[in-house]
Write a structure and sequence with these properties.
Layout (H helix, E strand, L loop, with lengths): L9 H26 L5 H25 L4 H24 L4 H30 L2 H25 L3
Length: about 160
């Protein structure tokens, strides 16, 4: 019997991360286009803010894989086109079915969860100190809380 290597190379991790974010962007774009959620200022801001950690994750894997940064620009262009193009497709479809909206929203959340827990947190813990990773995750939760709280102040709820 031969032993299988369960470790993946940094290049494979980069490809998997890019593919996962690509599909997440397609599903998210279609969902936003179908539901008109992209017209909300808070959803638009949240969408832009959640692109930053995706870019940071890709840059982290690029640096670990020792791949030139020009690939970062190519990957970002591909991911931007996937989000923008799928948003356009979702807008052009404009389905009023609540079941389809719920299904696409669930798929967007599911792909985002996979990317966060498996690719970003799972792979980051392997390369950095666990305490630093958990502190950054905690900081993320604090930022989200402050953002949500500030929205309630500005909207008077």
């Amino acid at each position: 019997m031969h032993k299988q290597n369960s470790e993946i190379s940094p290049l494979q991790a980069l490809i998997l991360l890019t593919v996962a974010i690509f599909f997440h962007n397609v599903i998210t774009g279609i969902t936003f286009g179908i539901t008109d959620m992209h017209q909300s200022a808070s959803v638009f801001a949240a969408t832009l803010l959640h692109q930053v950690p995706e870019g940071m994750a890709i840059m982290t894997v690029l640096s670990i894989a020792k791949i030139p940064n020009t690939f970062f620009l190519l990957i970002i262009a591909l991911l931007s086109l996937s989000l923008g193009g799928s948003l356009f497709i979702g807008e052009s479809v404009q389905v009023s079915s609540l079941k389809l909206q719920a299904l696409s929203t669930g798929a967007a959340i599911g792909t985002l969860s996979f990317v966060i827990f498996h690719e970003i947190i799972g792979n980051t813990i392997k390369h950095f100190r666990k305490l630093h990773v958990w502190l950054l995750i905690s900081l993320g939760f604090v930022i989200i809380y402050v953002y949500q709280y500030s929205l309630s102040l500005f909207h008077g709820h």
